[in-house]
Specification:
heterodimer; A: alpha+beta; Folate-binding fold; four-stranded antiparallel sheet; two-stranded antiparallel ribbon; 6 strands; 35% strand; B: alpha/beta; D-Amino Acid Oxidase, Chain A, domain 2; 2 domains; eight-stranded mixed sheet; globular
Chain lengths: 94, 416
């Protein structure tokens, strides 16, 4: 797979490390959320067959975190964003 | 029809005109007591043991494609019970004992071959860890043996013992481990279930579940609605897709695992062998091909095919261990979809929906578990309580802090 890095252009997927579903950005507030909310966040997955937003880390590159929209049935990548932009747009990392 | 040596000779003398189709192709009935979703190894074994060991009737197995067309026909056929943790080892040892009597039990030649498995040791720390594992196995009634470097060399003198980075220092062996003809497992269970009146319904995809007042009433399928008192789901690889019909999310990601077979060679590898410094395992089929595999590709996937970097990685593992295979040609590669769970261990449990039961999360260790998985799932379906060897495989174990994490990787499915 080729990942079109927003800054570095086309890069081989081998340069990246996969973390998982991009919902991991939405960590509950540790001071207010209960055990159930953290269980849901950390362990439960939607695991769709089809379009999936996921976190990849460019370990052998610029060490940026990316949010990649990829089809889990065809492996086709349709969108690549910097994770910090996605996180900010969701109101995190102000 | 019972199979026997006499029967084969008699048929040979009469032109093989007496063989019949091995199972029926029934039309689904309006209602069953039990519906098993998934006509793979685990689903067929569940139906077989439900009928045979637990005396249940009115059972149907619903399969989206054809029987045994999923992971039971795509794995590397290894059986073993070399686990460490209390939640796992009794279950896998139960499974290995069932393998040992399986062919007599279901009267089908599954080519169960206890040719032994060795896991190679490359460091002192690894020897300590494997010694602990061997002790745990022995305490649970399984067999385990620690081999010295010279004992390994006596069997496989051509391994790369003096690799500068990964010298071979010994091995842990389980002599009762081995390989099985994987397709024949599905066929044997299917035939055994069919003979006991189970309806095996192929080309029948489950498209929905009818749930009323928190209780399952049946399933919507591509061949219409089928009612059921109890529904068991055994569709590892697609668990999240099927359980979504019941509104459930699971602690599972689907990943693709590739497997490989080389061209046929003369006898080279007696048993099953794993490389301890990378992820590489290999055995030799009766046709002579080296059957091997390694890591999953590492990203969510429902495509039954992987990518080239993992093929390179697996080949490197093989070359580090066995430089002699350097000029062997690869014959085929293929992929299967794994339910990768959050701790690397499976689930056999009830769900919050009454009458709906779940079996899945087998990661890439499901094949060896087939008989025990079927037995324990049938036990749960018939008696509403878990089999004594499968009490730890709960769906809520992450919430309760009772993970069964053999590798100690935490909630990172692609690392198990």
């Amino acid at each position: 797979m080729i990942i079109h890095h927003p800054i570095l252009g086309p890069r081989d997927a081998q340069e990246f490390v996969y973390l998982g579903d991009a919902s991991l950005i939405d960590r509950p507030d540790g001071m207010t959320a209960g055990v159930e909310a953290f269980h849901e966040y950390l362990y439960q997955r939607t695991n769709p067959a089809g379009e999936h937003q996921e976190l990849w880390y460019h370990e052998q590159g610029d060490r940026s975190w990316l949010v990649i929209t990829r089809n889990t049935v065809t492996h086709e990548i349709t969108k690549v964003e910097l994770a910090r932009d996605v996180a900010r747009s969701r109101g995190r990392s102000q | 029809m019972r199979y026997s040596g006499f029967r084969v000779i008699a048929e040979a003398l009469t032109g093989h005109k007496g063989w019949k189709p091995v199972w029926r192709d029934p039309t689904p009935q309006a209602e069953y007591d039990y519906i098993i979703i998934g006509g793979g190894g685990h689903g067929l074994a569940t139906a077989y043991y439900l009928a045979k060991e637990f005396g249940q009737a009115r059972i149907a197995v619903l399969e989206k494609g054809y029987l045994g067309g999923g992971n039971v026909g795509r794995n590397t056929t290894i059986i073993r019970s070399n686990y460490l943790l209390d939640g796992n080892e009794p279950f896998y040892e139960f499974s290995l004992k069932l393998w040992e009597g399986l062919e007599q039990d279901f009267n089908y030649n599954a080519m169960v071959s206890q040719r032994g498995i060795i896991n190679l040791i490359h460091t002192d720390a690894q020897r300590d860890a494997f010694t602990r594992r061997a002790n745990a196995m022995i305490l649970h009634g399984a067999d385990a043996e620690m081999l010295s470097r010279e004992q390994v060399r006596a069997v496989y003198p051509w391994l790369n013992f003096d690799n500068a980075r990964f010298p071979i220092k010994g091995a842990i062996a389980q002599r009762r481990g081995g390989t099985v003809r994987h397709d024949a497992v599905a066929w044997g269970y299917a035939r055994g279930a069919d003979m006991r009146g189970v309806d095996l319904i192929q080309n029948c995809e489950v498209t929905g579940m009818r749930i009323e007042n928190g209780r399952i009433r049946g399933v919507e399928t591509s061949r219409g609605f089928i009612g059921a008192k109890k529904v068991g789901v055994a569709v590892a690889g697609s668990s999240s897709k099927v359980m979504a019909h019941a509104g459930m999310r699971l602690p599972i990601e689907s990943h693709v695992l590739q497997a490989f077979v080389s061209e046929g060679l003369k006898p080279l590898i007696d048993g099953v062998m794993t490389f301890g410094a990378g992820h590489f395992y290999v055995s030799q089929s009766d046709k002579g091909g080296l059957v091997f595999g390694g890591d999953i590709d590492g990203y969510n996937s429902y495509a039954q095919r992987g990518n080239l970097p993992v093929i390179e990685d697996v080949a490197e593992g093989g070359m580090a261990l066995m430089p002699a295979i350097g000029r062997v040609r690869l014959l085929r590669t293929w992929g299967g979809i794994m339910d990768m769970s959050m701790d690397g261990s499976p689930f056999i449990d009830k769900t919050p929906i009454e009458g709906l039961y779940f079996n899945g999360g087998w990661c890439y260790g499901g094949f060896k578990a087939t008989p025990a998985s079927g037995w324990c799932f049938a036990h749960l379906l018939a008696k509403d309580e878990p089999h004594p060897t499968a009490t730890a495989y709960r769906l809520d174990r992450f919430l309760k802090g009772r993970m069964i994490d053999e590798k100690g990787q935490g909630a990172q499915p692609n690392l198990h």
